[in-house]
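Session log. Operator J.P. requested a structure for one protein chain; no other inputs attached. Running the standard single-chain path with token output.
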Amino acid sequence: MQPLLLQFAILFICFLSVLALVTRIDSGGPYTDEGITPVIARAIARGAGGSLVLRETPELAALRAETPSLWFMAQDDAGRRISVGPVPAQYAGFASAMSNLSYGHVRDRIAPYSLTAVLCREASPAGPLTILAHGKLTRLSFTVLLASSLAAVPIFLLMGLVSLLATPWIVRRSLAGVARIANEAQRIGAGSRGTRLSEDEVPVEIVPLVRAVNDGLGRLDESYERQRRFIASAAHELRTPIAILRVKVDAAQEASTRKLGADIERLANLTEQMLDLQRLDTASCDQEIDLAALVRRTAGDLAPLVIAADRSIEVVVEHARPIRGDPGAIERVVTNLVQNAIEHGGRHVVIRVQGSCFEVEDDGPGIPPDERERVFEAFHRLRPRSTGSGLGLHLVQQVVERHGGHVSMLGAPDGGTIARVEFPGIRPATPRTP
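Structure written below.
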């Protein structure tokens, strides 16, 4: 809106500037009111032999009374001429050229401005006439110019209306490319590395900014890739010493040494989860998954672990629908959520499959509402002395988001926690018509 108001202000200032400039330029002295030539024309008729004769009409009489210095010459196309009043001698030789002229003003530079006159072609009872006349004098003032320019006001109003309607349309059309790259930028996230903003249909003035943003995205991708390779290499190199340490601890005779087994398992689990995070960037498996079958199979695999922990697990399926994605990654999601439910005090775990979603509900102490978003942060622990690595739920969120889904923590009716995972469903195939 502000650029539009500025445009209207500039248009109005230009209009006033033009008027002021014209008024200043018009310093040639007074001029004769051209309204006298129609009065003169209506008073001229044909006499005997086709000569021009003057009739004393009431309006001509009024004109004479108003302007005692009135004089004029009238000439038809045949060269017949009539003159009234003290026609200046300077116009004596001008009479022969009158029939070739149609309109004009002559201004005298010296008072009493007797040479000031107006020349017009007028229709009269005697036919077309060219009239050169001197009458009432007037000066071009701002008021007179403004009044005579009233015809231009609709033009300026039309220009303003066109600007009001056309300018927003032109601005929107010219900035359509900016709106498009803004939408592209909003879709860039942690999982869209390698994405660049398009330079097509972007205003030339904005192209350097788009290129700078793309260069910045490229540097971020390179930095992320270096970090990813370092973490993957470090986690991979840790697997061998951890395995050796686990064997030595398991074979140790001292009870104090065997107590280190839990810490070694935690270290091994942390290493495997770090490798899982790195595999997410390279895995590209995408296939149709029977979500209910996958959940039942995973729950069966976890059953020994659940029983060993003196817990129970139940699977409830309600109108399950297939999804698309990486079956191995989805199994890790189910496994991590069940392990998390068991670790945080749940004695009975229910996995409920509904459509393209599933929930893992436990009857533990629950998660405070202000912690339900933070539990997905890497290395965030709900309890500082927890044996978890702090990467399990972060890994769950990364996997679900890469499948176009959403994971959230909710409060269970009995005080526990519900981890809800939603995946985009697959539309059922339309049967072919014969």
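Operator note: The first strand starts at residue 31 and ends at 32.
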